[in-house]
């Protein structure tokens, strides 16, 4: 019995690794190229909308440009829907060696922001990371692909899958699903049809729904992206641009703040007539669990609601207070345009898939952020991996895979 997986990010790579380890015949198709981690910066395929949506198209997907942040997002919400993933989360935390980085990997900017937030009465925690501190030489390049291969990415699972017999094909966009008599029969690419009895869609929350729509299936009009902005100001020589980003979190009632800088802050400051180098900026990210008002159709749209705007404004106000307390020049504060890096919710559990992650088409499943029931407002990578493990185990227990 052949299992065909569409997409090679956190979800697709996990399903491939789990099934291939049990001798299932696995074929994985990835629309983008195979690249090294440090080449991932050239594979961004950003979507322009009111909120700019960040993503990459390459083998390993957006795991190559993540900050290595690993939290249990939406655990209670998924349990309420009948998915108890505690065992999967525990296994992942061991397998990916998830833990906060040691003090040696905390930069001066992050330390200042943590101290300032603590003095102001906020709860500050260290971010759990899937980064090997022995390999990590802090350089600030996590979001561009780690040049030291210190961070876990889906490439590790894909190597294991290939070693166990999985066939992995890159530069091969899937353009349609093949359905016969209400059951999946394979997928169509530009050049051929790949036949399979089971297809797992893991192409991401922007592409998976498009493939579902082409079969006539409805999708969830509830796109979220965890909208964020970064606020920053001048603090000469702080060097935050060379730190591990998002190495701590400052928890507020409805959103989270992280130490974070962006090259866009440099451009914004220079646009205001302030001559500044990248190492002279202290910054913080404001990330919210945004309202799911986006849609995936011929065009992808994601807008900001009044509620979103209020949360972002509140977060920006708190971030400025912390930044000023930490020593940044308040007269220089600027912010980046609104962006989102965690698209999801376009094939939600209960709407498009059931609690087994199965669609109404026999043999067709979804294992990416499309199925998430709500915006997590936090990195969903570990949750996607947990859902993919859950799906793989259900498939292995079923009669479909020996």
Task: Record the SSE blueprint.
Blueprint: E1 2-6, H1 10-20, E2 25-29, E3 52-53, H2 75-80, H3 86-95, E4 99-100, H4 108-119, E5 123-126, E6 128-129, H5 154-163, E7 167-169, E8 174-180, E9 183-189, E10 193-195, E11 198-201, H6 208-213, E12 227-234, E13 248-251, E14 256-259, H7 263-271, E15 281-287, E16 295-296, E17 300-301, H8 306-325, E18 334-335, E19 339-340, E20 364-366, H9 381-397
Parallel strand pairs: 1-2, 1-11, 2-7, 3-19, 11-20
Antiparallel strand pairs: 4-6, 5-13, 8-9, 9-10, 12-15, 12-18, 12-19, 13-14, 14-15, 16-17
Helix pairs in contact: 1-5, 1-9, 3-9
Write up what this structure looks like.
- Helices cover 25% and strands 19% of the residues.
- With 402 residues, it is α/β, with parallel strands linked by helices.
- Strand 9 and strand 10 form a beta hairpin.
- Helix 1 (10-20) runs parallel beside helix 5, helix 1 packs parallel to helix 9 and helix 3 crosses helix 9 (381-397).
- The radius of gyration is 21 Å and the shape is globular.
- The model has no long low-confidence stretch (mean pLDDT 96).
């Amino acid at each position: 019995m052949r299992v065909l997986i569409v997409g090679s990010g956190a979800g697709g790579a996990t399903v491939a690794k789990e099934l291939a380890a049990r001798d299932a015949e696995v074929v994985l198709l990835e629309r983008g190229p195979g690249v090294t981690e440090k080449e991932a910066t050239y594979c961004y395929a950003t979507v322009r909308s009111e909120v700019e949506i960040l993503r990459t198209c390459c083998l390993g997907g957006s795991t190559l440009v993540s900050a290595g942040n690993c939290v249990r997002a939406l655990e209670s919400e998924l349990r309420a829907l009948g998915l108890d993933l505690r065992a999967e989360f525990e296994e992942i935390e061991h397998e990916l060696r998830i833990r906060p980085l040691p003090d040696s990997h905390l930069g001066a900017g992050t330390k200042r922001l943590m101290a300032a937030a603590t003095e102001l009465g906020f709860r500050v925690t260290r971010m759990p990371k899937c980064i090997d501190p022995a390999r990590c030489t802090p350089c600030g390049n996590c979001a561009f692909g780690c040049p030291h291969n210190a961070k876990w990415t889906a490439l590790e699972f894909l190597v294991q899958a290939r070693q166990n017999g999985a066939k992995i094909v890159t530069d091969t966009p899937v353009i349609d699903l093949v359905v016969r008599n209400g059951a999946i029969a394979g997928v169509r690419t530009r050049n051929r049809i790949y036949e399979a009895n089971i297809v797992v869609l893991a192409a991401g929350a922007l592409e998976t729904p498009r493939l579902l729509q082409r079969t006539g299936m409805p999708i969830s009009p509830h796109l979220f992206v965890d909208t964020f902005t970064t606020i920053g100001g001048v603090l000469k020589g702080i060097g935050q641009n060379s730190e591990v980003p998002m190495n701590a979190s400052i928890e507020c009632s409805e959103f989270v703040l992280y130490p974070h800088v962006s090259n866009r802050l440099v451009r914004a400051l220079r646009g205001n007539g302030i001559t500044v180098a990248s190492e002279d900026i202290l910054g913080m990210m404001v990330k919210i669990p945004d309202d799911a008002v986006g849609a995936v159709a011929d065009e992808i749209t994601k807008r900001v609601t009044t509620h979103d705007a209020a949360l972002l404004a509140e977060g920006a106000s708190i971030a400025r207070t912390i930044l000023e307390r930490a020593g940044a020049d308040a007269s220089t504060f600027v912010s980046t345009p609104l962006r989102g890096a965690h698209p999801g919710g376009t094939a939600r559990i209960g709407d498009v898939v059931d609690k087994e992650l199965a669609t109404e088409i026999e043999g067709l499943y979804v294992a990416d952020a499309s199925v998430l029931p709500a915006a997590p407002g936090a990195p969903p990578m570990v949750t996607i991996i947990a859902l993919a493990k859950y799906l793989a185990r259900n498939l292995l227990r079923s009669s479909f895979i020996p």
